[in-house]
Every structure is written in structure tokens, then in C-alpha cells.
Amino acid sequence: MRKPGRHFLQIPGPTNVPDRILRAMDLPTMDHRSPAFGELGRRVLDGMQSVFRTREPVYIYPASGTGAWEAALVNTLSPGDRVLMFETGQFATLWKSMAARLGLDAVFIQGDWRAGADPQAIESQLREDRNHDIKAVCVVHNETSTGCVTQIPEIRKALDAAGHPALLMVDTISSLASIDYRHDEWGVDVTVGGSQKGLMLPPGLSFNAVSAKAREAAKTAQLPRSFWSWEEMDGPNATGYFPYTPATNLLYGLAEAVDMLHEEGLDAVFARHARHGEATRKAVAAWGLEVLCQEPRHYSGSLTAVMMPQGHSADAFRKVVADTFDMSLGNGLGKVSDKVFRIGHLGDFNDLMLAGTLSGIEMGLQLAGVPHQQGGVQAALNHLAETPQNSVGDVTPQNKRRTG
Amino acid sequence: MRKPGRHFLQIPGPTNVPDRILRAMDLPTMDHRSPAFGELGRRVLDGMQSVFRTREPVYIYPASGTGAWEAALVNTLSPGDRVLMFETGQFATLWKSMAARLGLDAVFIQGDWRAGADPQAIESQLREDRNHDIKAVCVVHNETSTGCVTQIPEIRKALDAAGHPALLMVDTISSLASIDYRHDEWGVDVTVGGSQKGLMLPPGLSFNAVSAKAREAAKTAQLPRSFWSWEEMDGPNATGYFPYTPATNLLYGLAEAVDMLHEEGLDAVFARHARHGEATRKAVAAWGLEVLCQEPRHYSGSLTAVMMPQGHSADAFRKVVADTFDMSLGNGLGKVSDKVFRIGHLGDFNDLMLAGTLSGIEMGLQLAGVPHQQGGVQAALNHLAETPQNSVGDVTPQNKRRTG
Amino acid sequence: MRKPGRHFLQIPGPTNVPDRILRAMDLPTMDHRSPAFGELGRRVLDGMQSVFRTREPVYIYPASGTGAWEAALVNTLSPGDRVLMFETGQFATLWKSMAARLGLDAVFIQGDWRAGADPQAIESQLREDRNHDIKAVCVVHNETSTGCVTQIPEIRKALDAAGHPALLMVDTISSLASIDYRHDEWGVDVTVGGSQKGLMLPPGLSFNAVSAKAREAAKTAQLPRSFWSWEEMDGPNATGYFPYTPATNLLYGLAEAVDMLHEEGLDAVFARHARHGEATRKAVAAWGLEVLCQEPRHYSGSLTAVMMPQGHSADAFRKVVADTFDMSLGNGLGKVSDKVFRIGHLGDFNDLMLAGTLSGIEMGLQLAGVPHQQGGVQAALNHLAETPQNSVGDVTPQNKRRTG
Amino acid sequence: MRKPGRHFLQIPGPTNVPDRILRAMDLPTMDHRSPAFGELGRRVLDGMQSVFRTREPVYIYPASGTGAWEAALVNTLSPGDRVLMFETGQFATLWKSMAARLGLDAVFIQGDWRAGADPQAIESQLREDRNHDIKAVCVVHNETSTGCVTQIPEIRKALDAAGHPALLMVDTISSLASIDYRHDEWGVDVTVGGSQKGLMLPPGLSFNAVSAKAREAAKTAQLPRSFWSWEEMDGPNATGYFPYTPATNLLYGLAEAVDMLHEEGLDAVFARHARHGEATRKAVAAWGLEVLCQEPRHYSGSLTAVMMPQGHSADAFRKVVADTFDMSLGNGLGKVSDKVFRIGHLGDFNDLMLAGTLSGIEMGLQLAGVPHQQGGVQAALNHLAETPQNSVGDVTPQNKRRTG
């Protein structure tokens, strides 16, 4: 049976791709060795530096985000190297498993999935590592499985306080272009990003922003690499080209995405996400439910993970919402499987889409027989109305944006 | 400044065109004299008969809806002919003005814009017309300016009761494919439709469904006509062609629209619109505001017109909503200019889109300082959750629909 | 069976709609009463003035081209008015039939379909009309059925020489934006245009460019009109709006089309069409076939009609081409049905597309057993290579154009 | 300056992406964990088995083709393993360099770039390898840099004749879905493919078709791997899912591409490419130029590399063609840089597009002052007309294909 109206894709990525980006990609593939391609290439390479807030090179892979995790590791490390990682949730766990599979010695600081990485635990491990066996500290900025944000400047400070030379690597897959992030200012060596979240693109592109220190490390790193190799990129990238066939149509979309982010303003983008996170948490509180993230300083603007009351299945609830209201919510992953559901409020999103999303959840809780109190939507609306955004003088619908 | 997320186009048409239809139109124009075009032509001509619920011919104009009003009149009437029309609202008034401009003697039964056409008033006028000077009775099925639905079977009964031979002409521009309508069963002679409402297309196509009696009248009707002439259509239409260049790409979209309506099922489409109308009125009542339509039997499933409290500008309110929440609401037209706003809940629409729409209104009322009570959204959600739809076993997002 | 590669749509309109225009139309329909719509409206209204080369108003109809013929007549004339028309071909004949159907007294100067309108014949008729019963002279600029161009300045001169006050009306449906045309400079009163030829859009929009004299005539013209009425347009058009729902998505495309024409430059557009016409005629000559147009001064840049050798069916030939090479050629219309085929070389077209087109014809002639000599393609290539265009310094593929 | 008409993208990939595929990708990204995604996933996984002509698993990477080269190596081999490769041209050379970078011992049999791989040279090397140090033989099926096809069954026979247990790995990036290929029947262990050539998609997807023997080898292979790991794929793939976020929108396009290939029929697709290769070579011969491939049995249906006369720059010629005729031709790579140009005639392509392509080359040769004889286009047209394809009874333009 046809489901009328738009699907609400409220998983924490892939996100709702705006028409402007879909249409930018819906054009003939061009010759990747033509002069026009070089212009496009430089445009997206420059653009991504502005998004990562870096003057260092950004490498763009024609591959989805998991690949950029691998790129960060294989370019900088050698077999058996020790890396320190922090269990913020499922994605930190997967990155750790990848490190192990690649032959690294991954030390994993355990966490309870209810906060970001703990800088003190990291500092303490680093201080103990007198021989500097640890070659890299890897943390996830925004844990997509929990909705907890690690404060990267605090992690940087932990390394500095310990006087430890390890590289700092950060996964920003679900925070880039949604939550404030500053590659250079925060002293990160490798930042990993992907296309399908705050950048509002379909999956298929991923990124490494790389410090001079990391590029130096690459010179001696022994892990075998070819597809992911940074050094192959530098030459062609200088004039906007790539060492092998790039994902041209996704690059069309990326150029458009960067334009759109700057039209709105990165700070406005971050504020929008933060405000939607706050409104969502007010709804959760009014329902009498609990947010997975226990540390208010670590609340995420990208997504909110909500704990189900004891004895109730998150997946059964999500199925009711999907079947009745044509909305996809994120499932609980790993340790919190079936115990939480996740609300994505990132990407190309606005107040009325959030109101629709929370309405679907509130009605779904009722239909699925999940104990809760009404009033979550109302609480969110009150917050949104008290903090109105977008107070500009003129209606600017979809088409105008593109041609304006 | 870029406004993030999707625009909410909640005027009572044009409506939110689904991606499936936009993409169907986004293909090269074909040769309108090729064999493949003939297949497309018959497909849409047959399809529109199913939508009008008629076995009589449907004529498709490469022109927007106002043109189909003119087509209905010029094909059947002669200069100076008397037509009886009923002032249900602004669109009835415009159709009457058109009739007068075309040289017809338009008799206009006054109405207060708060109900559909009154069958007794019509019957009474017809009874008085002993000479049968009245050649046609013209009513608007769903008054887009007021949200009041005329009960067409009652109008048919009025003509029959009066034993009057006038043609019955009905404007279904904002009801076709949204509110139950039956051209044959209800004994209508000319039904006028347009593409940009329940058919979910952009504007640019319009329709006449025509009874044998109306086609007979066309043989002697003296109003000059060429572009709108039905008789030019019959020959080419038989094999799926048109007497002059058709709006090919809109026809691609129309073929897709008819498929989509039948995938959902016309009765399900009507029930969906009725339920959304009911939820909307519950919201309006909870806000303590008044719906323009005073006759519950005439409530519209397509749109709801809401009266502003005395002394408050509907247009100022709409501007706040547009500027703050990127939503277009319909303005008050003619007599009710600035006194009402109109909520379109027709076309490709679902529960969460309605929830977002009503949320934008409730927050807008607050920001614009319009006296009201909170709780409209909550009242609507309660209604929607008590009457859940779409309870199918499987999520079927956008792409699946198209290729499935 | 699937036919691989692109269809060659080489009828003289609708033409190959470029991706840029299809994509511009593939966006959500906007509120036609919003501020952003007003901007779009003024943009296309101003843009169309530049295309018609006029400072007079241009009226845009949400209707295909035949409607704009009707608009020209009903706005300016009264029942029984005499109009002088010239039989340049099938479209002149159809316009004449329309005039008759609308109750006008259409005087038709016969032609042999092998040249444009004859100014002397027109002047002579006007001189005889001492009472000035003739209210309008109507000619087709580029006869789509024959590929003969009427020299409009000569027609203007004929009216002036006869001292006759009749309005001059010109159909530019298949010449606008393909062949040089100047509404103001040439003293035309009503110019009729359509969207699906040189403007590179799908069918569904049409135009009247209107002189002050024609607007003055409209004040007393008695033919009934409402949908087509110019006077309803002026008020809303002033701020970019329309008196009834416009064909919004086609207007998105029109805005893009006007931009594209000016990026190339109108004079370059005209030169390109003329050069392609010349190359085509060289091919026809090399094949030993005859071009329908006998008057070199009247050769068309939009299309070339080619006469079949005696005893050979043009339609059988066209079917071979369609079936074997997936190319649509124009059929012979009316008097020349099955005797000519027409090659459209207008719209978004270039040298290699023309080479492919002529190659399909040359191979089709061979496969269909039509007597001819080889070498047509070669002759065309020689002409194209001797007169190279587009000699710019840089490749600028599809995507660059859009975003550049 | 705008260049009118369609760009001719006649490099040997990326190829001209058909509208049907672009439009299939131009839809909202779906939840990659939803039931509907599982259906899509199985559909493309099954579909790719039919394209590779295998009943073995096919792994789909959200990465461009170079990645699938790496996947083939890292899944099956251990550091220091010897691989035997054959220098068919630039891509064989690049694959060899990759192997070396990944720590393999790549033995490279030299070739002159004018034929496919030599089975005798391979057999001889294998016979000498008494200890079976060679773990894999890697050949390129269609060398994109030269237009020479290696006969894979002969290579298989060479391994068998030598009684050598090495894995056979084949790169089909520019032959898959263009030139006959049979993974199972030909006894290949790993076949590498990409999306942007015969599959008619943009770049961004790549493939490994994998024999049981190769999967067995993977169990002991020691090269580190995670992103490329086959074993992670099997579990999720069984129900249509992937171990990490897939390139969803490219998968939409892939599903459409597989449908299109089967609508035409794979054998018809291969025959079409072969015929276009033959017509192209006839043109080259008529120009008096030489095809790079010297071995007629190795001629490619995907592309033709043409040698420039001594003292003439291929790149200068290509620039003339690009600037004057808006066509991209492939450049000479590596050893033949500036000495050859390459004509891509693969993907979504037909006779008239080929005629346009060859016309652009013939005119370009003239404009660039390259010594040649006229008549290449004529020679190709003669071949095409003597061997007509697509002789079906009905025109079936673009739109019909999609909706029919």
C-alpha cells in the first residue's frame, strides 16, 4: 500500500537530503580529467577546509565513512602500534575492532555509554605510558549510538598535560557540520568525517583532515596502504584532481552542500542543532522518559537516545512508529540493543519537521502501550516558541534558494 | 538567509508535489505524434475517467484550472444565456464574473460564505424559471476560499425536483482526488478539475468531464470557441493524441499521479483527507478559534479556513508563520480578506506533516500575540492516535514505492 | 526492447529540453502568492521582454501555443471583423480556421507552401480595402510545416505603404529564440510565442507581446474573453503575480531558459541556428534531394523540410529511421502529408548532434530504399569544419554551466 | 560562454549516465536498516550475480573501482606473497604498483601495450614456479589505456596447463556489461568491477565476484583488512544488508541499471559494443590512422585507442575537439601519453551518438591540422547501415522505457 506524504527519516544519519543537493547530483557525470573538473575539485577541497575549520589538507575519499576510519589508522601507524581508545559506545567499539583487525594493539578504556570520553582517564593512561608506546589517542566526537559528545579540547588538554606525543584522532562522522568543531584550534591530528549526516549528502564520501604532525608520521608508518594513501593525493589535489576516479556526482552535491552551509552560516547551523536537541530533551522529560546521555555537558545536537521503560521493547515501539506514521527512528545498537531508540535531529531540518517527529513519537508511545505522560510535544513547542529562529523578513522557499 | 529543512506548503493548492511525480516529469519531452505518445495519452485519458468516476469522455487541457471553467461555459452556452450560480465564496464569485465577461446572464444566489450551496434556494429559483431560460446551474463542490463543501447529490435532486432541464456544472478543482466525487452517479453534466490540488501535480493541466447531454448542448451552443472546443478533441483522443501540442511533461506526471492514487485507493485517499480535516478542526476548537464553515455536513477534507479573533490581522499572523517557521498558509480572499487564514491539508500529506503544520500555527499564534488557548496540537494528536491509519506491516519508503 | 543511448528528438519542436531546465523544474511548487513568487514572476516577465526584444508588456499564459493564437485574436477583434492571413503552410491554415471558428471573417491569400508570405500580395489586398474593413494582418514568421521564413519588416512595410491601420500579428512559435526577431523595431502589434521550441522548455507556456496600439484596440474589441484577457493581467503582473494560478514549475524552467539564452547571447543563438540550417541544406543537396522552401531568402534556421522523391513515402522512411536509429523526424502536414519529412535543428543543439541527426537520415534513406546519393553527411561536416563555432579556450561541461 | 546542446562524454568511462539512472538516484536516501532496504539490497546483489554471470557471492563496496583492486589483493594474500601480473597497459601497471605498495612481490611480465596478456608467457612463468610461490595471477580483461582485450579463457587454460594452483584475478572495470564476461564458466577466482563504465552509473561503487577457492584463501590470508573484508559482508548480505553504511543512492541507480541491461539483453549489449568498435575501426582506417591494438582478436568493444601521426600531439588535438565540439576524448596514459587519443564507445550509447562522435573527430583532425584522409565517418556509416540493429516495430522513447 502506498504511504502518502513524505517519509520522516529521523535516524541519526543518513539524513534527509535536500532537493537542492539531489538535483545538483542529478546531472551528467563529467570528464574527471577536464579543466572544469579541476575547478570543481578545488572548490570542494577548499570548501571542506572551511567546514573542518582547518588550513591543513583535507583528503576526500570516494568511499563511505568506515573507510575514512581505516585511512586515519593505516596512514599513520605501523603493525603492533598501541592506540588508546575510549568506549563511548558502539561506534567507538567498532573503530577499536577495526584497529585490532588491522594488527594494532588497541587499548580500550571502558565506559558506560552514558557520557563522552573521560579526559582524566585518558590523561592517567598517558601518564603511565612512560615509553610512549601509545602512538595515537582515538575518540569519537559525537557518539551516534548514544548521543553523547566528547569535549575534544579537554582531550587535547589531557595529552598536553601528560606531555604525551601521541597523535589525536577524532571521529566527527555524526557531528561534522552539526556540532561546533575546530580541527586546527583544537589541535587534532586526524579528523574523520562522512557525507551522510550534517553534510546532508547521501553516503559515499568520507574525509580525513590531517595535521602536519600526522603527515610526518605517515612518512614512517608501516601499515600497508594504497587506496587510502594520503601521499598519492597531494599532487593531483593541488590542481583539483584525484589519483583515481573520484565519485563525481557526489562531489557535485558536496559543492552545493558547502554553499548551503555557508549561506546559513556554520554558527547558525550549530545553534539550530543545539536548540533542536534541547527541545527534544524537554519532550523526553515531559513524557517521563530518560535520555541515555547522563552528562548535560555532553548532550548532542545531532541526536537524542531515549531509554525505554523497563520491560518494553524499543524495536517493537519503532515498528509501530514506522508502520503507522511512516517514520524511521534509530535503533539501539550493541549493548543497548532494543533498550533505546534514537531520534536524529540533524542535517536539513527545521522546527516543523521536529514537531512532526516528536508528534510521531508521542502518538507511537500511546499506540505501542509504552507508559508515558502526554505533553512532550507541547513542551517542545513551548521551547521552540520561546526561542524563535529564522526571524527574517521574507519567505524564501526552495526554488528561490537555488536560483537566488 | 537560507532556511533549513523543507518548506511547508500548506495553502489549499498548489500542494506538495511528491518526488515520484517531479521525477516522472523530469524526463525528455517526447514526440507528441509518436506511437509511444499515443499509449501515454490513452493511459492518462482512461486514468482520469477513473478519477472522475465516469465513463463519459474527459478532456485534458494544457492550461491551468481557470481555463477549464471557461471551457465548460463556452462549449455549452450561447451569448446571453442565463446561468444560475451560487455564491459559496470567492471562487464561485470569480466563475460568475467570468460568465458575465463571456456575455452570459449570470444569476447569482447570494450566500454568506459559511456553508455550501443551498439546494432549496436553487430549487426555488429553478421552479420559478417556467420558460427554462436558465441553461445551466453552476456550483463549486469544495469552495477553496471557505472550506465548505456543497452536497452535489442534493443539487442534482433540486434540478430533478424542479423538473428543470438545465445543465449541472460543478467545479471540483480543490476536491478532485481529495473528497468523494462521482460524475456519473451524481448526474453531473460538466465537471471542472485542475492538476495542482488532489492530483498532486504542479499547475498547468485542467479537465472537463462531460455528459452526453452536455455534448449534445455543444452542438448548438453559439459562444465562439476554438482552443477549448471539445469537438476538436474527440477524434485525436480516441487513439491517445491531441489536436494541438499537449503539455507532455505534465502528462508524464499525471500518469504517475493516477497510479499513486490507485495504489493508495481512492476511498482511502478520501478517508485520509476527512480524518485530517477532523483533526484540524479539533485543533481549532482547542485553540478557542472558530472555523469559517458553520455547517458540519459541509466541512471540507481539503482545507480548513479559520477565523481570526476580532481586531487581529490574519495576514500579519501568516507573515509571522512564514518568516519564523517557513510555512505558507492560505490567505483570506475577497470578503474575508485578512479575516481568515486557510490551512491546506490536501494532496500528498500524512499525519506527521499535519502535526508539523498545526504546530507551526500554534506557535505562530503565540508569537503573533493572537489570543488563543494552548492545546490544539495535543487535541489533534489525540484524534490521530485514536484513529490510526496506514497500519500496514512494512515500512515502504519513497524509493520502494517507485520501483516496487 | 530497450533502445540504448539518447533518443534524437529532431522534430521541429518540442525540442530537446536541456538537463539544466528539466532540473530547474524538478523542484517543489511554491506558493504563487508569496514574496518569492513575485520575484520569480518579474524575472520571467522582464526576461521575456528581452527575448521578444520589446519594451511593451509580454503576457504569459499557463497554456500551450495554440492558446496564444486565440489570445491574440480575442483581445483585439470583434465578431465579424475581417482579418487578412497568408497561407504559408499548415499552421497558417490552422490559425485561419481558428479565426473562422471564433466568428471572424478570415481572408486567406493562397500560397504554395514553398516560401514565406508575399508582402506584395498583402500590400495589394490592403490597398483595395479602402474602408479599412481589415482589422488585422496575421502572418507566421517561421512556418513550422515548411521551413519558410516570412520577412516581417517587409510585411510591416506593406502595411505602411498601403497606409493601412490594421494590426500586425505574427506567430513566432517556432522562431522565437532561434531566428532573429524584433517586436518593437519591426513594428509588430501582437507577437505570439510558445515555450517548446527555441525556449527549450516542455510545452505548456505561451506568450503575447503586445504593442500600445493593440492594447488600445483591446478596449473596444467585442469578442468574449476571460482566461485570455490581457487587461486582467496588467495589475498583478506589475509586481510579478498573475490573475489566476500560473504554471509555476514551467516558470522555474523559463527563468533558467532566459538565463541560458543570454549566457550564449541571442545573436550567437541565431547564428548557430542559421549555420545548422545551411549545413543541413548542403547535406540535402548532396543527397540529390530537394528542400521544400524554394526561396533562399526564406530558408529557416529552425527546421528544414525535405521533399521525398516521387513515389516514396516520407512516413515509411520516417518509420525506418525511428525503428532503426531511435530518432523522431517531423512528418509532412496537411497538403504535404507523406510527401516531406522535416528535420528540426533548433533549440539546445550543437554540431555533433546535427552530425548524428544527418547520419541517421543518410543511413535511413539507404535502408528505406530511397533513391539518393551518399555524401550528405560529409558535405555538412565540411561546412561545419569550415565555419567552426564555440572556439573558446576551455571545456565547459554540463555541470559547470549550471553552477558557474 | 554557454555551450549549447549535450556534451559528448566519449572518454572510456565514466560514461554517459542515462536519465533513467540519474532519476532513480535522485530520490531521498532511505534508512539502511529498514525492511525496504533489505529488499533493495538483495535485488542488487542478485542482479550483480547475473551481470558477472556467477552463482558465487558478489561483494559491493561503497567505493570507486581502485578500491576493489585493493580488496581483491588484501582478502586473499599475505605480506610478501608473489603475484604474477602482465603489463597490458597503464591500468595493469597501476595495479602492479598497488600490489607492491601493499607489500606483495609483484612479478610483472612486460608487454608492448598493443595486445592483451599473452597466455604463453604466463604459462611459461607458472611452469617455472615449481614451488608455487606465485599465489595469484592478475590480468586486466579490457585495458582501458589501450583498448586491448585479454582472452580470459586462454589465461585460465594457461594456469590449468601448468597445473598451477594460483588464484586467477581479473579486472573487468571497463569491460563489465560491455564485453562478454563469464566469472564462473571461465574459472575466475576474483573479478573486479566498477560502476562507471558499462553499468552506466556515476563512479562510487565497485565489486568483487569471488570463487569458493578465493574465499578459502581468505581464511589464511594475512594482509590486514577491515573495510574491504569479505567475511564481514556475508552475514548482513544474506538478507540484503551491509556491515556499514552503503552508498544507498548509487544502489538505487544500480538496481535500475541491472534492469536496463536485462531489458536490452546482455548478449545484445555485447553485440552492440562490438559493432560500434568495428564501425570505429573502419573510420580510423579510412582516416589513414592506426589503432593502438595490433591484435584483431584483442580488439575492444568498449574503446578504441588511436595513434597520432608522428610529430602530432594527441592532447593538442583533443583540446581542439573539446573547445570546438564540446566533446571529451580520452587522453593517452603513461607510456603513450600525448601519443594516442582514446574513443569511448561504451555504456548507454547508440548509432547516432557514435556518428556524432566520429564526426567530431574527423572535423577535429581537420581543424587541428592532423594529416588524415576524409571519409572515416562515411566508412562507419556504411558499416552501421549494413548491419542495422534495433529493428523493432515501434518507437520507444525515453519516458516509455521507464514507465512501460
From TrEMBL, chains A, B, C, D:
Stretches assigned to the Aminotransferase class V domain: 62-316
Modified residues (N6-(pyridoxal phosphate)lysine): 197
Residues bound to substrate: 342
Annotated protein name in UniProt: Aminotransferase class V-fold PLP-dependent enzyme
Keywords associated with the record: Aminotransferase, Pyridoxal phosphate, Transferase
Origin species: Rhabdonatronobacter sediminivivens
UniProt cofactor(s): pyridoxal 5'-phosphate
Gene Ontology biological process terms from the UniProt entry: glycine biosynthetic process, by transamination of glyoxylate
Protein family according to the UniProt entry: Belongs to the class-V pyridoxal-phosphate-dependent aminotransferase family.
InterPro entries: Aminotrans_V_dom, PyrdxlP-dep_Trfase, PyrdxlP-dep_Trfase_major, PyrdxlP-dep_Trfase_small, SP_NH2Trfase/AEP_transaminase
Any Pfam family: Aminotran_5
Record bears the keyword Transferase: yes
Domain of life where this protein originates: Bacteria
MF-aspect GO terms: alanine-glyoxylate transaminase activity; L-serine-pyruvate transaminase activity
